[in-house]
Amino acid sequence: MIEIENFVYYADLFGIAIFAVTGVLAARGKQIDLFGIMVLALATSLGGGTLRDLALNAHPLIWIADPILLWTAIGAAVLTFVYCRFWLLPRRALLVFDAAGLALFAIAGAEKAMGLGFSPLIAVIMGVSTGCAGGVIRDLLTGRIPGILQHEEFYATCALIGATFYVLMHGRMEPNLLALSAIALIFSIRMLAIYSGFRLPVFVVTGIDRTPRRVLTGRKKRRVMSIKPKGDK
Question: b/e per residue, 117-155, with b = 16+ CB within 10 A?
Answer without folding.
Answer: ebebebbbbbbbbbbbbbbbbbbebbeeebbbeeeebbb
